[in-house]
Design brief:
Strand content: 5-15%
Oligomer: single chain
GO molecular function: nucleic acid binding
Protein name: Transposase
Length: 226
């Protein structure tokens, strides 16, 4: 995975609306005590690229092409790994470089590691329709005070975390017990200007069709709406 320094989280926290005091508290909890002024400097730090030429290259003239290749690799795939880029460079340029060199090139190009954010994928045919609808609502200054937005979500009992933090050499703590078939449940609910609706719990194997959805509206939504 991309190497991320603990200071990168400070900018993410600030962007999420945390105060500098909250950022200081979070940093202290992670074992990195800082002051409010330090947090402010980290957030507003201007990146200054520096010239870097690795000494491990057999052909120093290839560095410019390799640097451009690393930048293009991340622009094409923002989740590219150091090891994959290293192997591609060896196959393309016949240069054996370390992951540290790739990391230094990445820093020189101004690439910064951020936490991934996901959004709904909208098909091309639906994008202009949604854009037109949103522009119309903005023009009408619609605040959606009499609308309810509903959705379903699948929740499972056990967590499947991809990362864990252990002391160096403590390999036993890396082994975590997981359920092959964790208990899951589907939850239906809605949110509006006046607050959340009542929740409906469904079996994960339940198929929500038009008939069942009407039953859900009659049994949960209508009493709440009244």
């Amino acid at each position: 995975p991309l190497q991320k320094d603990w200071r990168d989280d400070i900018a993410v926290w600030r962007e999420g609306g945390d105060t500098y005091q909250r950022i200081v508290d979070k940093s202290d909890e992670r074992g990195h005590p800082i002051s409010k002024s330090m947090a402010h400097r980290y957030v507003n730090k201007v990146f200054t690229p520096h010239e870097y030429k690795p000494t491990s290259l057999k052909d120093r003239q290839m560095f410019t092409e390799i640097r451009d290749f690393v930048l293009e690799s991340y622009l094409n795939d923002s989740e590219a790994t150091l090891s994959s880029i290293k192997q591609t460079i060896k196959g393309t340029f016949d240069e054996e470089i370390s992951e540290a060199v790739v990391r230094r090139i990445r820093e020189e190009c101004g690439l910064i590691c951020y936490n991934t954010r996901y959004g709904h994928s909208v098909r091309e045919v639906n994008r202009p329709l949604r854009l037109s609808f949103c522009e119309q609502q903005i023009a009408e200054r619609n605040m959606f005070t009499n609308h309810v937005f509903t959705d379903e979500c699948m929740v499972q009992l056990s967590a499947n975390s991809r990362f864990c933090f252990c002391l160096r050499g403590d390999v036993l703590r890396r082994v975590k017990s997981t359920h092959k078939n964790p208990v899951r449940i589907m939850i239906w609910g809605g949110i509006s200007w006046d607050g959340p609706t009542e929740l409906i719990l469904l079996d994960p194997s339940t198929k929500i069709d038009s008939g069942l959805y009407q039953v859900m509206l009659d049994s949960a939504y209508k009493p709440w709406a009244r």
